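Database export, one record per block. Field names are fixed; values are copied verbatim from the stored entry.
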Amino acid sequence: MKRLALIRLILLAAVACGGHAACAQKNITFQDTRKLPAPAADYRIAYGDDPSQFGELRLPRGGSQTTRHPVVIVIHGGCWLAEYDLGQVSNFSDALTRAGAATWNLEYRRLGQTGGGWPGTFQDVARGADHLRVLARTHPLDLERVVVVGHSAGGQLALWLAARHKLPPESLLFAPDPLRLHGVVSLAGVTDLEAFARGCGGAAGKLLGGTAGEVGERYAQTSPIKLLPLGIPQRLVHGALDQIVPLKLGRDYEAAAKARGDNVSLTVLERMGHFDLISTNSRAWPTVEQAVLSLLELKKNS
C-alpha cells in the first residue's frame, strides 16, 4: 500500500510538471525524507485508545529545573492517507527540539483506517493538541508559547487547529475550550479544500465524505480559507516548484487573510519543491526553522 501511494504522488508530480525545464532540477523527494536520521523520541504517549491516537514528545536538553520549554505541535502530511505516518517528520521534529523547542509530533487516524476522515481525523488532531494540558502536568512545557506547524495535508490541519475556536457549538468538531495557540506555520499547506478537490486523487472529498456541493457545511468547518480571520500570526512557506500543492493556494490564502486583517505572510522559495520544506538538509530548512522559532520568540542557535 505504501508503494502504491508513493507511486501515486510521483505520478501526480510528473503530470503537473508538464515538461517544464525547471522541473528537471533535483529536489528533495519523499524517499529522501525517510532516509534522514531520526533519533527516537523521548516519549511516545497515547492521547486515546486507537493505535493511531498517540504523539511523540521530544524535550530540549539542558536548562534549569524550573525551565519550561515552548512547544511545537508537528502535523505530518500525506494526503490524509493511512499510508503516510509521522515518521516523515521525525527528523524535522528532532531538529526543532535541538533548536530549543519541545516538539509534540502527532499521529492521527487517516483515510483507510477505521475512524479516519470526517469527523475522526479532525477530532484526533484537536484531542492530541489539547492533550498538551495533561502532558504539562508532568513535563516542563510552556503552554503560553505553543505553535503548530504542518506540512501539506498537515498544513491544512494546522491552520484548522488554529481556527477551531470559531466553530459553532452544534458542530461535531466543536470543543468548548480549545488550547490557545501562539501562531501557526503552514508548509505547502492545503489552504482551500474546495480548490484542491482534484489534488491527491480527490482525497479532500474522501476526507469530508463528498463534494462542496454535497456537504458544504463540512467544507465551511474545515477549509482554512473559509475560517478566516484566525486572529493569530500565520507564516506560510511554499516552494515555487511544488508539483503537489499549487502555490496559488498559498497566494490566494495570504491575500484573503490580509483582507480580513490577519497577521500573515507567505514566503516563496525559488527552486524548492514540495518535500524540500520538511528536509533539514535542504536549502529550505533555515527559512522554515526561522519561521517557527520567530513565533516562539526563540533565537536561532549559532
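Remark 1: The radius of gyration is 18 Å.
Remark 2: The chain has one domain: 2-295.
End of record.
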